Amino acid sequence: MPAKSHKYSDGKWEGTKNKEDELVVLNLVAKSVIEVQRRNRKNDCPYVFPFRDRRIGAINNTGWQNAWSKASLSNSKEVSKGPHNLKHTYGRRLRAARVSLETRKTLLHHKDGDITTHYSPPEIAELLTASEKVIHSISTTLLK
After folding, report:
1. Taking CA 140 as the corner, what is the angle to CA 139 and CA 144, rounded to the nearest 5 degrees?
2. Closest C-alpha to 143, from 105, 94, 86
3. Cβ neighbours for 36, distance < 8 A, ≥ 6 positions apart
4. Successive 10-residue mean pLDDT values, the chain, 144 residues
């Protein structure tokens, strides 16, 4: 994913939070979802998950909130309902699958400033293997 801002015909992407390019690693389940979306979109639409053929500017929108309700997920005030929940779930499942801290940080796009990690980041094959592990890993920890 490009880190710097980029202009599109229907708006502007401000870039990533830390302004560094990021490798988005997909396990087989996530990849299959992306491929289905690509096949279902209109040929001239450049976006994988468009709304009315336009780019989605923010993920915590009414579409997200309606999907949350449709999935019968908790509406309790104690439960975080935003899209950041997905990152928590992914991180917990990586840990439950005993994925190393350095690899989890890379997959979650957390920058830690460790110079050794900077010079020796996990290999792509290691990231793919780790990401596959979450498919069969279920975390039972409830986060508030």
Report:
1. 105
2. 86
3. none
4. 64 67 87 90 80 80 86 79 83 92 90 80 91 77 53
